[in-house]
Design brief:
164 residues; alpha+beta; 24% strand
Length: 164
């Protein structure tokens, strides 16, 4: 008669891993809700990548979610602005038509150009004049900001957080 011990160990490992995954997911959902006011708990997450770490915690956090079954309410978007992005954010995320700047953060993150929708921006740099404004985005030597975009045509949510 074979022992049931290996099967029990495998089941326990699966349960522990599932529990850790759901704790991690809930932490991300709470972070995005705090940062942007948008609850993505009912959205289907397509990409969830965090490169923060190391000594100073530099890195990016990118989340892409399909919210077709749970679009945001007007209340969730009350602090958001209608697209298009400001000139500075456009240059930072999608780059220029000329080679004036070398940024294309959205392309590197897999965030497409969105024409219709809303965006939320917070400048978290300690030297920023205003947390709501991007006017001094290029006046500092490092970037610390959060940008969330909601695409109303495709009901997609894009979240980009950078610390350099």
């Amino acid at each position: 008669m074979k022992s049931k011990k290996p099967l029990i160990i495998v089941i326990i490992i699966i349960i522990v891993c599932a529990g850790l995954y759901f704790c991690y997911r809930n932490e991300r959902v709470r972070y995005i809700k705090r940062a942007s006011g948008f609850d993505i708990s009912s959205c289907r997450i397509l990409k969830d990548k965090d490169t923060h770490g190391g000594f100073l915690g530099d890195g990016e956090y990118i989340l892409i979610a399909d919210c077709g079954k749970a679009p945001p309410s007007a209340e969730e978007l009350k602090e958001w602005k209608r697209l298009p992005l400001t000139e500075n954010l456009q240059l930072m995320m999608y780059g220029p038509e000329a080679d004036e700047y070398e940024y294309s953060l959205a392309g590197e993150a897999g965030i497409p150009y969105v024409e219709n929708g809303y965006y939320y921006f917070e400048n978290r740099h300690s030297g920023a004049k205003s947390r709501e404004s991007d006017e001094d985005l290029f006046d500092v030597i490092s970037f610390n900001f959060t940008l969330a975009i909601y695409d109303t045509d495709n009901e997609m949510f894009y979240f980009y957080d950078i610390d350099t």
